[in-house]
Amino acid sequence: MTERILAFFSKRNPIYRGSLFTNQELAIAYNLQFEEVLYIQQEYVKLEGIGKYLLSNAIRFRSKTDVPDIIENEITQRGWSSTYSRHLVVSNPNNTGAWQYTDHTGTYQHYIWHLTVENLRYDVAAFDTVVRLDKITLPNGNKVVSRDRNFLKWAGKIRAYSATILPRDGGIFDLFALDQTNNSQVYLHSEEDRPPRQSIINSTGNYILHYQIFSKGFPLLEFNIELKLTGNVNTTQAILI
Known about the structure:
CATH topology of the largest domain: Immunoglobulin-like
Structural class: alpha+beta
Shape: elongated
Strand content: 35-45%
Low-confidence stretches: 1-9
Distance between the termini: 70 Å
Number of domains: 2
Order of helices and strands: HEHEEHEHEEEEEEEEEEE
Helix content: 10-25%
CATH class of the largest domain: Mainly Beta
Largest sheet: 6 strands, antiparallel
Mean pLDDT: 88
Number of strands: 15
């Protein structure tokens, strides 16, 4: 009699084996030490392997059509931000004012814009992080390769064109500079060894500067700066887009 009852209920609520790849993916996520994870599990799927431990308190769902609403609600309740990344991220540039800048090519009077690069990982440092200006979109819409594609200087360091960004920390580099006597001339503080420095932009207009950041163990980060160059340092704008 007992066997018949168990057989009856097992037919109504069968238990299925899940994908073995799920255990591999869970193990990878655990090894990479993801801090914020949303676990969901379909009803009647058997918990095996590492899933028995990581999915023991998972949110259950019956139909796959329920998943989008569950995820949307959980993200809202947890206050997760779409701008968060475990990779390198950049923040808005800022004008640090007038400086006398000296490097291997000479001494210059510049207004310098800085940009911060953050490493949001808490377990891995970003070694050998380098930045370059790859391309420039001109006011007429044409895109050209930057005349100077050498690595840019990290702020506050002597001739430092590579940096290590520790976990939960950031680094600042010289995004670009304006000549103090001619605010229409844009320069880079790069490792280019061709004295004296040559400007990369010489006339006013709206430009888009296309930058790239490379770092060991991190994917390529590309970002764009909209430069509204007016010929006056007080009205010139640099905006992360």
